[in-house]
Amino acid sequence: MVIKTRLAMIFILVCVVIIPMGGGAASERNWVKTSDAHTQFLLDHVGQFGPESFGSLGAEGLDEMVSQLTDQFDKKALRALYELLAEMEAREKEEKHPAVRQDLEILIDFLKDNIEEFSLTDRLLLPYGDPVELIFRGLSALLDDQVDESRRPAALVRLRRYTGLEPGWTPIMKQSEERLRESLKKTGLLGPFRGEVELDLKLAPRYIAGIAALFEKYKLTGGAEALAALEKQVNAWEAFVRQEILPRSRNDHRLPPSCTASS
User: Fold this and answer.
1) For 91-115, b where at least 16 C-beta lie within 10 A, e where not — what string?
2) Is the pTM higher than 0.90?
3) Within a 13 Å sphere around the CA of 60, how many CA atoms are in the beta-carbon half?
4) Rounded to whole angstroms, how far apart are CA atoms 173 and 233?
5) What is the pLDDT of residue 21?
6) What is the DSSP string of 132-150?
7) Distance between CA 215 and CA 136 in Å, rounded?
8) 240 in Cβ contact with 200 (< 8 Å)
9) Which one, out of 35, 51, 103, 205, has a CA that is 20 to 30 A from the CA of 170?
């Protein structure tokens, strides 16, 4: 699956680790500013592959963007990670300040870890993920009291793109199903943990109800068609998962060593 939720969460930790609080001497503020610029550069370039999460981290222009659950999108993301890795390694070699070099090394490790995870999961695991949760998080990130009111209408654009009602967009549930159907034809791919799949199915109706409640709370009009389409698509997705994915799921939550990226 494209830049995973895990990637966004790791990046949150990266930002916390390498962006200290303001203050201090001028020389300290200078290197912090330089380090922040490196981090922001990476954030801006990675954000397009996980707009639901990275928009909340400060990447701009992503409010109407949505993730795509296709092999083509994943390949584009992986190419971007390799290009960013080369760029960050070049910056690290040229950097003289030890603290900035250390922060660049953190960003480089972040990129290497996610490239390795991409390779392992694509080679060994069924590309299962919960698109319903992705949609909920993508919309709730905008429909929140802490989000400026001017940004909230983008949630309707996202919903219409998620459901394929915007011209040129394929429903994200359909993307995920088609990709899984292709992967099910391959032998040897490890299925998802059964408990995870069952929990996803259990939570899906709550996510749908939660999305409708958010649209009502923030008085976003024009979403009735998309909300109805979403509910119908989720029902079809759940039926597919119960019929095709649950039988391929595994009872052990642990991944074999071959599926675990080295640290």
Assistant:
1) bbeebeeeebeebbebbbebbbbbb
2) no
3) 2
4) 7
5) 45
6) HHHHHHHHHTTSSTTS-GG
7) 12
8) no
9) 205
* Six token digits for residue 225: 């068609």
Closest CA to 115 of 88, 95, 134, 135: 88
In the structure encoding, which two tokens stand for residue 242, read together?
């119960």
Our measurement of the distance from residue 243's CA atom to the centroid of its chain's CA atoms, rounded to an integer in Å, reads: 26
- Give yes or no for residue 5 having a pLDDT over 60: no
Q: How far is CA 113 from CA 9, 67, 84, 180, in A?
A: 13, 21, 13, 24
Write down the pLDDT at residue 24: 54
Is 190 in a helix, a strand, or coil? strand
The single residue listed with the structure tokens 């890795």 is 85
Rounded to whole angstroms, how far apart are CA atoms 159 and 215?
10
Give the helix/strand (H/E) hosting 261. none
Question: Which of 97, 121, 132, 95 lies closest to 7, judged by CA?
Answer: 121
Within 8 A by CB and 6+ apart from 249, the residues are 191, 192, 193, 194, 196, 197
pLDDT tens digits, one per residue of 94-113: 999 999 999 999 999 989 98
Q: Which residues pair with 190 in a beta bridge?
A: 125
How confident is the model over 237-262, as pLDDT tens digits? 999 999 999 999 999 888 767 665 55
Using the predicted structure, report yes or no on whether residue 10 has a pLDDT greater than 80: no
- Cβ atoms of 138 and 52 within 8 Å: the answer is yes
Backbone angles phi, psi at 82, to 5 degrees: -65, -40
